[in-house]
Write a structure and sequence with these properties.
Helix content of chain A: 40-55%
Number of domains of chain A: 2
Radius of gyration of chain B: 20 Å
Helix content of chain B: 25-40%
CATH class of the largest domain in chain A: Alpha Beta
Number of helices of chain B: 7
Distance between the termini of chain B: 82 Å
CATH superfamily of chain B: Metallo-dependent phosphatases
Largest interface: A-B, 44 and 43 residues
CATH architecture of chain B: 4-Layer Sandwich
Number of helices of chain A: 7
Mean pLDDT of chain A: 85
Strand content of chain A: 5-15%
Oligomer: heterodimer
Shape of chain A: globular
Strand order of the largest sheet of chain B: 6-7-8-9-11-10-12
Mean pLDDT of chain B: 89
Distance between the termini of chain A: 40 Å
CATH class of chain B: Alpha Beta
Radius of gyration of chain A: 18 Å
Low-confidence stretches of chain B: 1-36
Structural class of chain B: alpha/beta
Strand content of chain B: 15-25%
Number of strands of chain B: 15
Largest sheet of chain A: 3 strands, antiparallel
Number of strands of chain A: 3
Chain lengths: 206, 313
């Protein structure tokens, strides 16, 4: 386990250094590949928040490893799939992940301190008119009726709120399998393939 | 009084007969309404595109995924236009599937609507809207190659389909990398949310514009197509880039374009519409067609002279 952690740290640090060199032309916030802790360190985040970010990152990675393991056992969804294959894959994938995460509850990944950190990011990044615009973007979306339940699917008949790009650049980065989403003022973590709500936090938006 | 009641009942029955519901509750056109669609589609077609040898010809449509009668009517006009303007492919601006994405929805809201175009091997290239699940990227007829954002080339034109719902660091990096090495004559981006819009309900996606516009300028993107707004709008060129909105392929937000918007060059929000495009050399020719086969906008734009970061190397 220790060896695995060490390897992960070395890989993350190496990747971060390489990407810093490669994408030096990008704005600081847009430099890709930095682990969430490294991003936070650059912003002078407090040790308490740093620990919460590390926990969040680790739990997200654990989730991704688990769902990748389950998906590997399923028939591969090709890039030229039929609607029937897409629907069957999604249904089976949802069932497998839901069974594996039976008992998952709110706060397992969005820990209270991490949720506090997210709120602080949004509070400091969005004030006055910008906050109004962000609220407008989020609130105008047709997400009424989306039940906030961990390990249940985000209803496919509901709209997915456009995530403000500037905010995405400020939030801790996620692996491609997982996405941040807003439902009202609340922030969700949603699996991009099976559509399950992995976790959520209340009142992310002030 | 009885006569009035009988009249009202007759009207109600006839109106209800215009649609039939299938098992999934989807409105499907009845024989009567298909007849009215046929009448609309029978209107004479006019073409203002040059049909030059070797040109790249395509169609742009957005916010289609309803499966409604009117979407079928517009599809009829699209199909008829192919007889006089043989376009090779279609760009879809997102919201490809409203209100559910079961296998039957793919058929009701897409496959059946554009069946004759599929039969003719016209390729559709989709982008994801705010009503679309990521899994659409695996659907063979959307040609997304399993990716939420992707690039393809036709002739000397590079097309970039972006996921404007989720413009994260990975996508920005990919876009910059691709554009930096792209020496195509034309670079065209298409995605769902419009960086510039005169829409009353949504308006310009300012956050998205803040991120993508500097990249487009740096690397010489020539034209941008978007949807989300359920109308057609040709924007005045912004910092030299041509912007279009074509988001009335399945839904219409009638009267939503703000009067006297300083952004608007031309707009149409009275009916549903699609765009026909032909790129020949340095010229981009366009013609916008309504559901009743009327031409509501047309013209030609010349490729910008500015130098991109890629061509400057």
């Amino acid at each position: 386990m220790k060896q695995e952690m060490k390897t992960r740290t070395v890989l993350a640090t190496g990747a971060a250094l390489a990407l810093c060199l490669t994408f030096g032309a990008l704005p600081t916030e847009a430099r890709v590949g930095l682990a969430p802790q490294q991003q936070a360190a650059r912003r002078g985040v407090s040790p308490r928040y740093m620990r919460a970010i590390a926990t969040f990152d680790s739990r997200v990675r654990d989730y991704v490893a688990m769902r990748e393991g389950l998906e590997e056992k399923m028939p591969t969804l090709a890039k030229d799939s039929t609607p029937e294959q897409i629907e069957a894959h999604k249904t089976a994938f949802q069932g497998a992940v839901r069974a594996a995460r039976n008992g998952a509850k709110r706060g397992d990944i969005f820990t209270p301190v991490f949720a506090e950190y997210i709120r602080s990011i949004i509070r400091s990044a969005y004030r006055g008119r910008e906050l109004q615009e962000l609220r407008q973007t989020v609130m105008e979306a047709e997400t009424k009726g989306v039940a906030l339940r961990v390990n249940y699917p985000y209803p496919e008949s509901n709209e997915l709120v456009e995530m403000p790009p500037a905010l995405l650049l400020k939030l801790p980065q996620l692996p491609k399998q997982v996405k941040y989403r807003f439902v009202g003022r609340n922030m969700l973590l949603v699996d991009r393939e099976n559509g399950l709500i992995i976790d959520y936090m209340l009142k992310a938006l002030p | 009084m009885k006569r009035i009641f009988a009249c009202l009942m007759t009207i109600a029955v006839l109106s209800a007969g215009a649609f039939v519901n299938n098992a999934s509750g989807q409105n499907l056109p009845s024989a009567n309404s298909r007849a009215s669609a046929g009448a609309a589609a029978a209107a004479p077609l006019k073409l203002s595109l040059p049909l030059k040898d070797g040109s790249v010809r395509f169609l742009v449509i957005g916010d289609t995924g309803t499966g409604s009668e009117k979407q079928h009517q517009l599809a009829d006009v699209m199909t008829r236009y192919r007889e006089i303007f043989p376009y090779e492919f279609v760009l879809m601006m997102g919201d490809n599937m409203y209100g559910g994405e079961k296998a039957q929805d793919f058929k009701n809201k897409f496959e059946n609507v554009y069946k004759r175009l599929h039969d003719d091997k016209v390729k559709f290239y989709a982008t994801l809207g705010n009503h679309d699940e990521s899994n659409q990227r695996f659907y063979e007829l959307f040609n997304m190659n399993g990716e939420e954002y992707y690039r393809f080339k036709k002739g000397n034109i590079a097309f970039y389909s972006l996921n404007s719902n989720y413009m994260d660091q990975k996508q920005i990096k990919w876009l910059e990398e691709q554009l930096a090495k792209d020496d195509s004559e034309w670079k065209i981006a298409f995605f769902h949310h419009p960086p510039y819009s005169s829409g009353g309900k949504h308006g310009s996606s300012l956050g998205l514009r803040e991120i993508v516009e500097p990249i487009f300028l740096k690397y010489g993107v020539n034209a941008v197509f978007a949807g989300h707004e359920h109308f057609y709008e040709r924007l005045k060129p912004q910092k030299g880039i041509y912007y279009f909105i074509s988001g009335a392929g399945g839904k219409l937000r009638s009267g939503d374009v703000k009067d006297n918007s300083p952004l608007t060059e031309k707009a149409f929000d009275k009916d549903m519409s699609f765009m026909l495009l032909e790129i020949a050399g340095d010229e981009l020719h366009f013609q916008v067609i309504s559901r009743t086969a009327e031409t509501v906008d047309s013209g030609v734009l010349t490729k910008q002279k500015r130098q991109s970061a890629a061509s400057a190397k």
